[in-house]
UniProtKB/TrEMBL annotation:
Family of this protein: Belongs to the outer membrane factor (OMF) (TC 1.B.17) family.
Pfam families: OEP
Coiled coil location: 314-362
Protein name as catalogued: Outer membrane efflux protein
UniProt GO molecular function: efflux transmembrane transporter activity; porin activity
GO cellular component terms given for this protein: cell outer membrane; efflux pump complex
Amino acid sequence: MKKILLTFLISFSSSFAITYDEVLSIAEKNATNIKLSEKDIEKVEYQIKEAYSNIYPQVNLTGTYTRWDPNYIFGFTPKNQYSAKIGLTQKIFDYQVLNLLQLSKQNLELQKVVKQDVIQKVKDTARRLFLASLYYKQVMDIKQENLKYWEENFKYVEGKYKAGLLAKYDYMRASSQLQTAISDYQLAKANYEKSIEDLKRFLMLEDITPPEGSLEKLDIPKENQDIKNNTEIKVLISQIQTAEKQIEYQKSANYPNLSLFVNYQTNNQFKFPSTSEVWKKGYNLGLSLNWSIFDGMAKDSRVLQAKTDKSKYEIQLQDKIKQVETEIKKAKIDLQALENQLKAEEENLKVAKESMRLSTERFKANITNTLEVLESQSNYLNTQLSYISTLYQYNLRVFDLLNLYGR
């Protein structure tokens, strides 16, 4: 992945400009969605601790005080009655608890895979924003170069006009074109500044030093990549595994559970046949077997629901695999078409640049008028913008392909 990304070939004019790797690192550190995913993992870890509590001994302490109405009691019941009890319960066998632990652990693995998917999406968004900032910067640079050309042209035309060598119409056209170039540059600058604001917002930073350099064509990922590295496919696979654990958990409700209990208790009472008050103390212990023989088919219904959920995930997985395979094929088709378009536009760019140079020289030699200059410069500008736009779209499709491969 790093080798492919390094082919971005960003030529930095300032060592303080934010780099591609820094953007990815900051995004993974500050992204809200990643932080929320980490909290989901933390929550599941606490749920695992809660599940383990079912296999530990349970100790309960109970104390009561009862004040009886003398008109209500008789015999050997104290008017002020006290009792205390401490009990310990230990599960000896509970198959559902064991399956609950397995389900909780699988759910933790699912959340970790979900986090990988979130990181992938954050990384993909970060690199697209980084690419967009470079694209809008290059558009701004092209518009600035165009502005400089029309500023020089206007000075030249103005000097010729004042010397009486050019008509007022030529002067007005040069002035109009200069104002258009200024407006285009200001718009391009605004778009670039907005792209930087989008990057800052996503990185959760107050300020950054904008990236420097220009767009370069990215390398296409190698063939025969395993689509199961796609993070969305990984999530669905993990969801199926979790659903399988859920089925086993629901099935385990059909098994009996066995527990050991030990109680020690004390209470006050009158000692027969006297009326003196004494405290009775003692313990009891035993085994408790609980087995739900019939619950109105509730357990079976929960098992069927869990199986249905698993079937839904399996259907979604097959659909996602087909979708990813189709998107990969479409991305490759687009990249091939864009590759051919780039080659054609590279040639068009050379022709447009030479045409602009020749028309400018002819105009200065009074062989042609400003209309030809205007057309040639406009054609050169549009060819530059078309080329950089195609290159931008090409790189975006490479990012699409990387994302589909889970890279």
